[in-house]
Amino acid sequence: MRRRKLVVDALTYLLLLAGAVVMVGPFLWMASTAFKLPADQYTRTLIPDPPTLANFEQLWTKLPFSEELGNSVLITVLNTVGQLLTCAMGAFVFAVVRFRFRRALFLLLLVTFVIPPQVTLVPNFILFRWLGLIGTQVPLWLPAFWGGAFGTFLLRQYFLTIPRELAESARVEGASLFQIFWHIYLPLAKPALAALAVFTFMGAWNDLLHPLIYLPADLHKTTITVGLSLFQTQYGGKWTVLMAGTLVSVAPLIVVFFVAQRQFIEGISLTGLRR
After folding, report:
1. Domain that holds residue 165
2. 246 within 8 A of 28, measured Cβ to Cβ
3. How many C-beta atoms lie closer than 10 Å to residue 136's C-beta?
4. Residue 73 burial by Cβ neighbours in a 10 Å radius (0-12, 13-18, 19+)
5. What is the DSSP letter of 274?
6. Number of H helices, E strands in the chain
7. Sorting pLDDT into bands at 50, 70 and 90, what band is 274?
8. How far apart are CA 245 and CA 242, in angstroms?
9. Number of structural domains found in the chain
10. By CB neighbour count within 10 A (0-12 exposed, 13-18 middle, 19+ buried), where does 263 fall?
11. In a domain, 11, yes or no
12. Which of 37, 95, 108, 267 shows the smallest number of beta carbons within 10 Å?
């Protein structure tokens, strides 16, 4: 039995190692190519010989990369802040406040999960065109302040794990609903808020479709994902420069995940404890 267990454990670790190689391999190739000379971009060596930073310099000269990077940061931060605020308020109402048709409204909110985001592109585009916002960055972050089903559901499940006695005690002491929400529930929901922030940050940062629709021609207002897509179309053979831009675009995601890793895992693990 011990030998069989050792064999099973060895096979399990080998499978996990193979999966790690498959997942990490493309990232290592991207990082290696970003520091290679153009003449060495098709070589199989993983360590550049010699390493160079010229690809990053070309990236800033061939594209308005600084402006695109700043636009991505601004839009992503606004999306994250909007989702955290509105989804937290909606989740608090559904988890704590008692009112008629609360369960029916929450189920109606969950139904929106089955609606693909692409379905709402046309009506949203018509709405923003009527408001005269096409060609601006507003359509890329304003919908985040309308809330969302996923974020509301995630935070609502976490709010249900917080003892209701805390809110009742605060009400007895004369605290308003907003004070209970701001001073009790939000501080206790940091893990779930971190999880939602990571999800929102990744989705907004990697978004390619919406900038292409609402900012079709202005490279100085668009995001880094659109800039890299257009760079690939115009300079298809310059893989070293393209990988340098991809490495720069991936770096913020890695930093955000590792900074919020502990809270992210804790928030995901605790959101489904109660209904």
Report:
1. 53-270
2. no
3. 15
4. middle
5. -
6. 15, 0
7. very low
8. 5
9. 1
10. middle
11. no
12. 108
**pTM of the prediction?**
0.85
104 residue type, one letter = A
> Could you tell me how far CA 64 lies from the centroid of its own chain?
23
CB distance 219 to 34 below 8 Å: no
What is the chain's mean pLDDT, rounded? Answer: 86
Asked, for residue 26, whether it belongs to a domain, the answer is: no
> Both tokens of residue 62?
């061939």
Q: Give the C-alpha separation, 137 to 214, whole Å.
A: 8
Going by pLDDT thresholds of 50, 70 and 90, the confidence category of residue 60 is confident
Which CATH number covers residue 158? Answer: 1.10.3720.10
CA angle 48, 54, 57 (to 5 degrees): 140
Choose between 36 and 261: higher pLDDT.
36
Q: Please state whether the peptide bond connecting residue 211 to the residue before it is cis, i.e. omega within 30 degrees of 0.
A: no
Check residue 73 and give its pLDDT.
Answer: 93
Q: Are 140 and 214 in contact (CB under 8 A)?
A: yes
pLDDT score, position 219: 76
State residue 267's pLDDT score.
Answer: 62
Residue 270's pLDDT band, with cuts at 50, 70 and 90, is low
Cα 190 to Cα 180: distance, rounded to the nearest angstrom: 15
Task: Confirm if 79 and 199 have CB atoms less than 8 A apart.
Answer: no
In a domain, residue 34? The reply is no
In a domain, residue 242? The reply is yes
Give the closest residue to 211 by CA, choosing from 61, 119, 75: 75
